[in-house]
Specification:
Chain lengths: 308, 274, 363
């Protein structure tokens, strides 16, 4: 807690410090506004029009909410939404579990800890498309090491064509995502772990708590803020997933692994249906942003309250 | 104090996780050194026959230098610009008191959560009308949508962690705001700037959707796009793809290994402190 | 309640640093033993070894009749009050107090009853539903205490529990702890770096220096018969004055003469002594007199700084040959800086220590 700074005048929008503050922030803000807000507004506007680049003779008439109605009736959209939710939930669950474990392990001091931390960061640092390619290669039906190993181990009788069936196509997708982002999750959780005062564990030990009790009653409750932050970031990333699936399955087989972002991409830049694609964009935006707002609000309150 | 069985559990699991983490890289390196034919016939974990053909083909038959150069230019320029503009904003947000700070921070945080796909089409049309499709500015500009908020966010968090006392002492000694900023804070903030720069660079280097949407051909494609679109004559040229992957990954991996402590600090300073 | 015994305990860290060397001490059932020493003396380490938070590298620790050397803290049935209290921030005061009982699967009503009773005795009943962040430093300290009391352990361990409190609160809490000890009749081991805290609280005091036990005795004995120069200089405030010099026999009457830079005085001593020594004189045993008398047993001195303490004056003196000394003088007459005074030594206040080993020479 800090005492309020001595001020001879109330800090207001017009105070000198305020003016300086706004001046310094202005360039960054305007860049962001120009490049993010302006196009967003455009997208909203576009979504209310018919705009088929492949059929320019139709013009760009204002059609109100027609596009949105079409979305509501579009089975491919709902499927895509389902895929996205499925992907997000499964990935996050795995990542949280493994990430927590990894964080607990990395929280102990041991030789080679720096190396572990670095090694674990590399998947996070490489381009998603490269990660996707690596995993695609591993699961290739011909020359894929996954098949080779599984057959050798006797788990499979013959090589599987992973990308032909939806169920098996999800395996490399989820594996790749878990492989790539668990490090990030582990790092966030590790930071949270390191904020926990060691003497709390000592007090608990003296009080009679063994490792499980300590985990349940000290670590997990005090890790809640970090877990929440992780959930936010990962949920949003999950909903925006594009690169990974584009390269791994292309949305296939057919469109059975297609997430909403890929569907929108196809509508926009392949089918050139700008009006419809924009409406899809808006829907995605509303969902993602809505989630983000919910989370930030919940997190903001929590962070404010824990300031002690 | 530790329990003995805990050590075994964690140790064993760590080893398993390490193997899982490093295996794809190991396999990519091995495969990129194996002749195409051997790969598809009988993939084995241990390289028996090492060749450098794929790597040579990468730079002789294909032009892999161009995508690398493109990525460097785009990521580098974006990072430099965002650092310059972002530092000013971060200074204001971390050190100055004015109304509207909280909404600005919330706004910036919110923009980092934008789904890129939602602004692809208007950006495409905008760039097209400015004749910027398939150019460097045509990528640098859109990249700032996520690079700028990221830079400001991480930098603000980092600067907040630098104690104010030193600048306050400078003010008492008679330094102006600009002097305390350039002579006291900036030198202290160099590590944070470096970290933020690294993070921003990595994000730009890895970016795919915009690069895919706003470039038309090999002249301006960045590394991720180039690799994703590798086409072979008869079949997918896995040998070359993996060689390209290794080449694209090696510098990043090296950077991460060297700067891992900083990167971790930067990531968590931005995220957990909120 | 139980006794605690350390037998030849060693603690050496992997990097070679020895925090405790061949430490043997015994704490009687119901005794309050204070472990005191400067930073790095190993006192906290010793306490933590008793708790099981540090492993011993040699020797054994017994609590009651049990050898607990290899037992983890969970199984030792001791309670500890930490320096920073270590209260669980996400639990209410009630939950903090009841944590140890809850772990031992005590039924809810038993837990509540014991928690309520302890809270009432510590004045915490109004705070039971609050979280630690909403408490003052003194209140948190009481919760930490309460958490230990509720458990009804075999012994209590205190790790500098008062150092985070302001001066007045520290004195008040010290008295409370004393009262608590008498009420519970509990075995308590108390670590502090503050020698005045040690003197006022402890039934006995163990002084540690660099992991080695210097002396273990009652407060008065430590004050009047310190075993070595370190103990002598550590116990008592202001600290004892030391004068370096030689001790030579004078005649056969069991008396020696101490010759220092400024001071020459006769000291009762053992036969066969002819050594370099330190003569120790407590400030309370240096009398400041106004006239300029000199000769054996008294010194001329110049007054440097005078600290008026209300009930006495602490006088910082410079002696003719440059040595410094501290004296405690009564409130009157007022002594002023720069004054030239005479200082007389009281015979009962002489301690002699071997210059090399530091140990006490004489009766």
């Amino acid at each position: 807690m800090t005492a309020p700074a001595l001020r001879t005048r109330k800090s207001s929008l017009l105070g000198r410090e305020a003016r300086l503050g706004w001046t310094l922030v202005a360039p960054a803000l305007s860049v962001i506004a120009l490049i993010a807000i302006f196009p967003l507004g455009w997208t909203f506007w576009e979504s209310l029009h018919l705009h088929e680049l492949r059929m320019p003779w139709l013009g760009q008439p204002f059609v109100g909410l027609t596009n949105y109605v079409e979305i509501a009736k579009d089975p491919r959209f709902w499927a895509a939404l389902g895929h996205t939710v499925f992907f997000t939930v499964v990935s996050i669950s795995l990542e949280l579990l493994i990430g927590l474990f990894l964080a607990l392990a990395m929280n102990r001091v041991f030789r080679g800890r720096g190396f572990v931390r670095a090694a674990v960061l590399v998947p996070w640092a490489i381009p998603t498309v490269v990660a996707a390619l690596l995993w695609r290669f591993i699961f290739e039906s011909q020359g894929g090491i996954a098949n080779a190993l599984l057959v050798d181990a006797g788990i499979l009788k013959q090589p599987l064509v992973w990308f032909i069936e939806t169920a098996t196509a999800w395996v490399p997708v989820i594996l790749a995502d878990v492989w790539k982002t668990t490090p990030f999750v582990a790092l966030l959780l590790l930071a949270g772990l390191q904020n926990i005062d060691l003497s709390l564990y000592e007090a608990a030990a003296v009080d009679g708590a063994n490792a499980w009790w300590q985990l349940r009653h000290i670590t997990l409750p005090l890790l809640k803020p970090a877990i929440l932050v992780t959930l936010i970031f990962r949920t949003l990333d999950g909903f925006r997933v594009f690169d990974l699936i584009y390269v791994l399955t292309g949305g296939g087989p057919g469109t059975s692994t297609e997430p909403v972002a890929l569907y929108t991409f196809n509508a926009l830049l392949q089918n050139l249906r700008f009006g419809y694609g924009s409406a899809l964009s808006v829907v995605i935006f509303v969902i993602t942003f809505g989630l983000a707002l919910l989370y930030v609000k919940g997190l903001g309150v929590r962070l404010g309250g824990d300031e002690s | 104090m530790t329990f003995r069985w805990q050590n075994w559990l964690f140790g064993g699991a760590l080893v398993a996780l390490m193997l899982f983490t490093l295996f794809p890289f190991y396999w990519a390196i091995v495969a990129s050194l194996t002749p195409e034919a051997a790969l598809f016939r009988d993939p084995s974990l241990w390289p028996t026959h090492i060749i450098l053909d794929h790597y040579r083909a990468l730079f002789d038959e294909r032009d892999f230098i161009t995508p690398i150069r493109n990525s460097l230019v785009v990521a580098g320029t974006t990072t430099l610009f965002c650092l310059t503009v972002g530092t000013l904003a971060a200074y204001a947000l971390a050190r100055l008191e004015f109304r509207g700070k909280a909404p600005i921070m919330a706004f910036i945080l919110a923009v980092t959560m934008f789904p890129q796909i939602s602004i692809v089409s208007p950006l495409y049309l905008l760039l097209r009308s400015l004749h910027l499709i398939d150019t460097y500015p045509g990528l640098i500009l859109p990249y700032m949508t996520f690079a700028m908020p990221l830079t400001v966010w991480v930098l603000t968090g980092s600067i907040r962690q630098i104690p104010k006392d030193l600048e306050e002492a400078a003010h008492v000694d008679g330094a102006s705001r600009r002097q305390s900023f350039t002579k006291i804070l900036l030198p202290l903030a160099v590590p944070s700037l470096a970290t933020t720069g690294i993070l921003t660079f990595i994000y730009c280097w890895n970016e795919f959707l915009f690069a895919l949407s706003f470039t038309l051909g090999p002249e301006r494609q960045t590394v991720p796009v180039a690799i994703a679109l590798f086409r072979g004559q008869y079949q997918v040229p896995w040998g070359q793809i993996l060689a390209a992957a290794v080449v694209a990954t090696a510098p990043v991996a090296a950077m991460v290994l060297v700067f891992q402590r900083r990167i971790v600090q930067g990531l968590t300073a931005g995220a957990v402190k909120g | 309640m139980a006794r605690i015994a350390l037998e030849h305990v060693d603690k050496t860290y992997p990097n070679g640093y020895a925090a405790a060397r061949d430490l043997s001490l015994e704490i009687a059932d119901g005794e309050l033993l204070v472990l005191v020493g400067p930073s790095g003396s190993g006192k906290s380490t010793v306490l933590r070894m008793m708790a099981g938070l540090e492993q011993v590298t040699g020797g054994t620790i017994r609590i009651g009749e049990r050898d607990v050397t290899d037992l983890p803290p969970q199984q030792r049935d001791i309670a500890m009050v930490f320096q920073n209290y270590a209260l669980y921030p996400h639990m209410t005061v009630r939950e903090n107090l009841g944590f140890g009982l809850m772990i031992r699967k005590q039924p809810r009503d038993v837990v509540n009853r014991r928690v309520d009773a302890v809270a009432a005795s510590l004045g915490l009943d109004a705070l039971l539903e609050r979280k630690p962040a909403q408490l003052s430093g003194g209140q948190r300290q009481r919760v930490a205490l309460g958490r230990a009391i509720v458990r009804e352990p075999l012994a209590f361990l205190f790790d500098e529990p008062l150092s985070n409190l302001d001066a007045q609160l520290r004195v008040e809490t010290r008295v409370e702890l004393s009262r608590l000890h008498r009420k519970l009749g509990a075995t308590m081991v108390y670590v502090t770096h503050d020698q005045s805290e040690a003197l006022t609280l402890g039934d006995r005091i163990a002084i540690l220096k660099e992991g080695v036990l210097q002396q273990i005795a009652t407060p008065m004995e430590l004050y009047e018969r310190p075993a070595n120069k370190f103990v002598a200089g550590f116990i008592g405030s202001p600290a004892m004055n030391f004068f370096e010099g030689t001790l030579t026999r004078t005649g056969a009457g069991g008396m020696c003469t101490f010759r220092g830079k400024d001071l020459t005085i006769r000291v009762p001593c053992q036969p066969g002594v002819n050594d370099r020594v330190f003569l120790g004189i407590r400030p309370q045993h240096l009398e400041v007199v106004g006239d300029a008398a000199s000769g054996e047993g008294s010194l001329r001195a110049e007054v440097g700084v005078v600290e008026p303490m209300g009930n006495e004056q602490i006088v910082y003196l410079t002696l003719p040959a440059g040595e410094r000394a501290v004296a405690v003088a009564p409130v009157q007459p007022r002594i002023t800086p720069g004054e030239k005074v005479s200082v007389r030594v009281r015979a009962e206040g002489l301690h002699v220590f071997d210059a090399q080993t530091g140990s006490r020479i004489s009766d």
